[in-house]
Design a protein that fits this description.
Helices cover 44% and strands 25% of the residues. By secondary structure, the protein is an alpha/beta fold. The strands form 2 sheets. A 6-stranded mixed beta sheet has the order 9-7-3-2-1-10. A 4-stranded mixed beta sheet has the order 6-5-4-8, with no helix packed on it. The two termini are 14 Å apart.
Amino acid sequence: MKQWLTEQNIESLMSLGIAGLIIIFGLYLLYTVIKQNILRHSIETKVSQLGFKQLKDIIIDDGMDGKIQIERVFLTAKGILALSSNFLTGNIFGDDRIDTWAQVIDKRTYRFPNPLYNFEHTLAALKHHFNDLPVYGKILFVGDCSFPTGQPMGALLIDDLEKHQHQIETNEIDEHSKELWDKFAQTCEHTRHKKIELPGDKQLNRRLTISIALLTLAGLWISLLITN
């Protein structure tokens, strides 16, 4: 290889250098895709440990002649946990019983309805199936966000997951709860599982496509340079 390099003219060496830069950029894009998927897998693993058993993306009877879709349901020592994920960034200001929350990003304020209120129908539907077990809901905020003035009881951040796992590990599920869960699981309809949304997900497929194209192009380019 060293001898081959010494025999090349400036134009060939410049072409080789450009191909090398393309490879580096292609590998960088591929690295960001892999890193994102590793992070998602890590979060999914932590989330799955929030309960002894879990059901994802299910449709159930809401007890009022209708159907409702739920992102995740867990059997925990405290009862039945309904969980949904929400992607938000910036500083979030809100409370469990405040109708309107605020999101502050770069000194700009955006107001939106309390996302915890979306659980009212979900919790009512679950109580229809688990009438003698406690039912509660949480929203997992997976973006780069924080609650500067206090975190609502119904909100979870990524850093909170391990604490909740530890609480669950110190308790046991009684047989009655397990029987109710098994009966409930048999009545559920399953839909296609949706991945937890993370920052940059919208560009992920494009980055992967560009990375593969660049690496393929650079590989062909280098092969032509060497054979010629």
